Amino acid sequence: MEKYEKLEKVGEGTYGKVYKARVAATGQLVALKKTRLEMDEEGIPPTALREISLLRLLSASLYVVRLLSVEQVTKPCGKTVLYLVFEFLDTDLKKFVDGFRKGPSPRPLPTQVVKSFLYQLCKGTAHCHGHGVLHRDLKPQNLLIDKEKGVLKIADLGLSRAFTVPMKSYTHEIVTLWYRAPEVLLGATHYSTGVDIWSIGCIFAEMVRKQALFPGDSELQQLLHIFRLLGTPNEEKWPGVCALRDWHDYPQWKPQHLSRAVPTLEPEGLDLLGVN
């Protein structure tokens, strides 16, 4: 990896550590993702192969982080480590929102910024879905921001997978808890693009509120947060919900108006956020 100078560790993705680095020959800043799994006699780990193939498929979009190259490094012990080289963006949406929430003069995110970031997030997600790919882990930490240009890009496709029609059975343990759709929390293994759309709604509300919409600390608490605001589902509103693996007799709450959770959001925004 002589061609790259590591500058600092900037995060940890689903499957590996991420470093800010500089290309020695050009000075260009890049992000290096070192995959957790080392290559063995069988070659590149399937998780890395999946992410590489998905990134190559999706990188045509302005709203998905661009994969620049893939590097193999052989360690002195003979093991080969895989690095993914991405374009570098200087922050993520969580840090960006925290900058408005914390400090001596907390203030709301400008409406135009919220609209722009939401638009870019929807465009990037639509691009993924249009190519048959679910992200499955959309959260503010996985949305990279170029502050100077006002650009948002979707990153960390470590949990992504191609989806098909009819839907296949997928794993239950996906998506950071606060952004996890109720069908997944209730144990559904057949799900589709709705899991990403739910995450987008949570992120939208968080940009306006400057704090998480449903900050549960367990799957049960997460469901209760959701039901308190949106109402406890039943077979009439959600056919088949009682047959889901983790369904129980939950407290019965009536739906609240979304303005209680996001009081500063204008009516058009509440309509967009609303669940039908």
From TrEMBL:
GO cellular component, one term: cyclin-dependent protein kinase holoenzyme complex
Domain of life: Eukaryota
Protein name per the record: Protein kinase domain-containing protein
Binding site for ATP: K33
UniProt entry keywords in alphabetical sequence: ATP-binding, Kinase, Nucleotide-binding, Phosphoprotein, Serine/threonine-protein kinase, Transferase
Organism, as annotated: Triticum urartu (Red wild einkorn)
Molecular function terms, GO-annotated: ATP binding; cyclin binding; cyclin-dependent protein serine/threonine kinase activity; RNA polymerase II CTD heptapeptide repeat kinase activity
Entries under InterPro entries matching the protein: CDK, Kinase-like_dom_sf, Prot_kinase_dom, Protein_kinase_ATP_BS, Ser/Thr_kinase_AS
Pfam families per the UniProt record, alphabetical: Pkinase
BP-aspect Gene Ontology terms: G1/S transition of mitotic cell cycle; regulation of G2/M transition of mitotic cell cycle; signal transduction
Protein family: Belongs to the protein kinase superfamily. CMGC Ser/Thr protein kinase family. CDC2/CDKX subfamily.
